[in-house]
Amino acid sequence: MSEDIQGVNPASPTGEGREPLNQIQTVVDPAEGNQPQKPPKGFVPYQALEEERKKRKDIEAERDALKSAPPEDSEVYSDEGRVLSKEISTLNEKLRLMERKDARREAESEFPVLRDKKEEFEAFLEDDENKRLSIKKAAKLFLAEKGLLTQDPPERKGLEKPTSGQNPSEPGLTDEQKETIRKTNYREYEKLLRQGKI
Questions:
Q1: CB neighbourhood size of 121 (10 A)
Q2: CB contact burial 4-17 (16+ within 10 A = b; e otherwise)
Q3: What are the pLDDT digits (tens) for 129-155?
Q4: Alpha helices in the chain, H assignment, sequence order
Q5: Can you tell me the distance from the alpha carbon of 115 to that of 109, in angstroms, rounded to the nearest whole number?
């Protein structure tokens, strides 16, 4: 709806009616009312996000499986080579187990409390976050979480006592008092001198 600059309503029946417009009329196109609102820029529907996450997990799982699987092509290894590679892998596994047992013994000797809490410590080591830690670090972490890792701080010795030089004089006697004792009571002065108080 268009308006004249002076506020004249062109649809007035007489044509000269200069009545001001008090109400603003809005015209809605019926085709616009049925359209859904456009989402804001950067908006991603939740379903699409979930689908993307699922696909990403599947792809990462496939990638990890391909990385960890050794190539078993018959062209790569001969029969003897396959047998040797199996023996090497079993020996590597035995070596890892022996190293783990040795590290476990060292941790138990350093922290004897672990022998009493053996089952709890095993369960702690099986946790995915703790598998990556070395046995010694895992033992320290386990004991700290249980409140069993309380090491007393080493004693502080402070300053060493003097071993040479003059002995400090008795705090109750000043230089003037010492001189008066020496002049007036020589025997007392000698006694204090022998005791090391002067």
A1: 24
A2: eeeebeeeeeeeee
A3: 888 888 888 888 888 888 877 666 567
A4: 30-33, 46-68, 79-110, 113-116, 118-126, 128-131, 135-146, 175-184, 186-195
A5: 9
| Domain contains 63 | no
Range of the domain at 120: 77-148
Global pTM exceeds 0.85: no
Residue with tokens 């022996």: 98
Domain annotation covers residue 194: no
- Strands (DSSP E) found in the chain: none
How many domains in the chain? 1
Question: Which H or E element spans position 69?
Answer: none
Cα 61 from Cα 55, distance rounded (Å):
10
Cβ atoms within 10 Å of 104's Cβ, excluding its own? 19
Q: What is the CA radius of gyration of the chain?
A: 47
> Does 156 reside within a domain?
no
Alpha-carbon distance of 41 to 166, in angstroms, equals: 87
